[in-house]
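Lab meeting, action items carried over

1. Structure of the two-component assembly. Owner: GW. Status: complete.
Input record:
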Amino acid sequence: MKVLTPTVLTYIKVVLLVALVPAIIGFVIVLAERRFMGFMQVRLGPNRVGPKGTLQGLADLVKLVTKEDLTPARAERAVFFLSPVLAVIPALTALALIPFGPSIRLSRDVSTPLYVTDINIGLLFLLAISSIGVYGIILGGWASNNKYSLLGGLRSAAQLVSYEVPMGLALVAVLLMTRSLSLVEIVERQERIHLWFVFPGLVAFFLYFVSGVAETNRNPFDLPEAESELVSGFNTEYSGVKFAFFFLGEYTAMIIISCVAVTVFFGGWLAPFPNVKALAFLKIIPPFAWFLIKAAGFLFAYIWFRSTFPRYRFDQLMALGWKWMIPAALVNIVIVAVAILATPGRTNGLVTLSWVFGVLFVAMFLLARLRQALTRRDRLAAEPAGSRSGLKG
Amino acid sequence: MTDENRAVEHPEVPTLFDVQEMELNFGPQHPSTHGVLRLVLKVDGEKILEAIPDIGYLHRGTEKLFETETYPMGIPHTDRLDYVAAATNNHAFCLTIEKLLGVEVPRRAQLIRVMLDELQRLSSHLVWLGTSGIDLGAVTPFWYAFREREQILDFFEEYCGARLTLNCMRIGGLPFDLTPGWVERVAEFVDDLPARIDDYEQLLTDNRIWKKRTVGIGVISGEECIERGLTGPLLRASGVEWDLRRAQPYECYDELDFAIPTRVNGDTYDRYIVRVQEMRQSARILRQCIERIEPGDIRGKVPRVIKPPAEEVYASVESPKGELGFYCVSNGTNRPYRMHCRPPSFINLQALPRLAKGHLLSDLVALIGTVDIVLGEVDR
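Predicted assembly:
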């Protein structure tokens, strides 16, 4: 009798995901974040617990678990208890859809794909389930019966609802190219047409990732927390394990956003340059590792943002979303649709679009650098060098 | 929540909902109030209708303490006023007593005082830069700023043994001469400084988000600044070229070349630019002092027991935050009859309710940062 039936394998994968992802978050991502931020900020970051600080996650876990689990006296107890759960469960559920890699052979006659399930409405399901996670934050802020938490909850309600829209619209542009909502199919199509969707979908990618950062409440869009304004906002009143759940939810959401970016725009588990002979050695790295490397790149971008940018103000954030990103996403849909319809049945339109976007991107980048240099020069020229001016008293 | 949630009238905005204003306690325990400042806010959503500062959590009766102790014993108390800029506090106090006594400070002591002042200005501005960056969510400039501040505090420590509460001046001069090599080390630091300031500016000055958060926030005109008695970078960012180092030169400031950075818009961004430019000017001043310094006395002719004539004097210096002055009433004994401090933080703080009105909660944080208060000086 075969033990490793597909059902059993699925259960194993689910257990592995639920067990491994929080562990990876605690031991790798948080540590990496703190260490990298440390290096960017001319300091060392945590390096005391274990070799090079590798066991910091354990210390944090012990601290969080042993902390007193407080519930404010006038909090809405049931909701207060439920909202951290509500923040974690959808994020972990969404992990089931992420295709980490193609099938691998476990033994002679058993092989299994490196994802829990592939449903034909995958992307839609992801968007839907990730917006449920928002409720955790909103309700948590409300149930705390704390004015700062309430403001944090309100901010996140408005912010997350507004950034769902450009994110969805950005993905629509990619859907026109993929013709499928299944994440596995999206990756396979990128393999077939030898084109990662990031190139024809450059605008969509930027819109997606910016919205993604806003969705996960990270810098420069971390307004619901806003340590310096709202004293951590929605999670002010949370301590111990409940706080750890919010924390876990946030980081899992970051992973989801990164993984979806990799899957949809960066060819998922595919190795780059499949046709270049000189770079054939890249194929030695297993597909699963490619996926992780790409996802790690995005997580690094998150950390990088955090140590670089100031925080947006609430109304500016909303203006950016509604007045700028949503129109841009709509225009982008039209452009991509035209590119596809111009060459029906072939991908020439998409390749042309990639070149156009690529050239525009490089040109804009150079222009921005030029402008930066010029304003800097002007500023330094305007620096007062005079010596004896000023009012006399 | 009984009478707190009063419905307010918004005749200009018709709304379907019952608009309620909320009273929000901002501080005294809040990460962005830079100490124990408490603000009672009336907010409509996130919009600030009213912000009332509630001060006094750090009141220690410093002015009364001056009366109970001899003149030299007052100097350490001044350290605790603006505790991120102790040297200028010491300076203002000593200057007042020297004016009362009519004592001449030797040239070497004057130059060292100016150097200590300017180092202190740098370190105070660095604290301001770092913390107000954090207030707006930019965490990294803080670490850069504190890297340099640490060096400055090392200089202070080498000079007088203390890093924060310096007690580094005496009536008529200085307590110690410089340690060997101090000037050279400061010179090295000053040479590095412009590049370091470039680092901070790289992160903030042209940053879109930083500009969005600061340009047009808390605008105040030069006239209003003068009406409210605001001094320091707040006044200069509103276009008034008023700096006591130039307006009423003390020590040897009148022979030094430095510009007084001013801007015209009087918003948070301009105050930021003014302070950053002041840091560059401080470096210039330090360089000139280093060139001019020569051996000599460090203490003027001061009687052993200080019993000034029965007079009233006021003397002030340009502290990093504005005009810091002491008003001393002497009755001919060895203790002041009355000592009053004109603290720039306290007077500048008065502008906060006016600046904050109508802005959002997030801007309030920026505004507390831009006024640059130290609660030790506000409450005394």
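2. GW to write a short summary for the group page. Key points so far: The mean pLDDT of chain A is 83. The radius of gyration of chain A is 23 Å.
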